[in-house]
Specification:
Layout (H helix, E strand, L loop, with lengths): L2 H16 L10 E7 L2 E2 L4 E6 L6 E4 L5 E3 L12 E8 L5 E2 L5 E2 L17 E4 L5 E2 L2 E3 L13
Length: 147
C-alpha cells in the first residue's frame, strides 16, 4: 500500500474516532436526599456501577436535591445496578453560584457510606429519580476516615 493511501486511511480513522461520543453510554439520575425527613444539604452522593467503570458524583443543594455528573461535563451515570454511598465529609469549597461552603466532618451513619448497602438500578433511556430517606442513629465514622 502506498504511504499516501495509508496516511489517508489513518487520518480518516482518527477523525471518525474523534467525532464519536466520548465515553460509555450514560443515563440521567437525579433525586433528593433527606435525613430524618429533612433535606440533607451539601452531602456527596456517589453512584458506583457494579459492572465496573467510573463512578458518578453529585452534591446535594440546600433542598437536598442532586443530579449526578459523570465526567467531561456529562450528566448521569452508567446504566445498570449501582452501589450508592452518601457522605457529608468535604473540604471547604463553593456552590454552583460561587457562595462559600464550609468544610464538614461526617454527620451520617456509616451504613449509608463506608458500609453502604444502598443500591439503585439505573435504566437506560429514562430519567431516573433516586430519592434516599436516611435515618440518624447509627455509628458515625469520625473525621474523614475512608475518604
Amino acid at each position: 500500500m502506498k504511504p499516501l493511501r495509508v496516511f489517508s486511511l489513518l487520518t480518516f480513522a482518527f477523525i471518525a474516532i474523534g467525532c464519536s461520543p466520548s465515553g460509555p453510554d450514560i443515563a440521567s439520575v437525579k433525586g433528593t436526599v433527606t435525613m430524618d425527613g429533612k433535606p440533607l444539604e451539601y452531602a456527596t452522593v456517589i453512584f458506583i456501577p457494579t459492572s465496573g467503570g467510573r463512578p458518578a458524583v453529585a452534591r446535594t443543594d440546600k433542598e437536598g436535591q442532586y443530579e449526578l455528573r459523570f465526567s467531561g461535563g456529562r450528566m448521569g451515570t452508567i446504566p445498570g445496578l449501582n452501589k450508592v454511598r452518601i457522605t457529608t465529609v468535604r473540604d471547604p469549597g463553593e456552590d454552583e453560584d460561587g457562595n462559600p461552603i464550609p468544610g464538614s466532618k461526617e454527620t451520617i451513619p456509616m451504613e449509608y457510606n463506608q458500609t453502604s448497602k444502598l443500591e439503585f438500578t439505573v435504566e437506560d433511556g429514562k430519567e431516573n429519580v433516586a430519592d434516599f430517606q436516611l435515618e440518624s442513629g447509627g455509628k458515625i465514622l469520625s473525621g474523614n476516615d475512608g475518604y
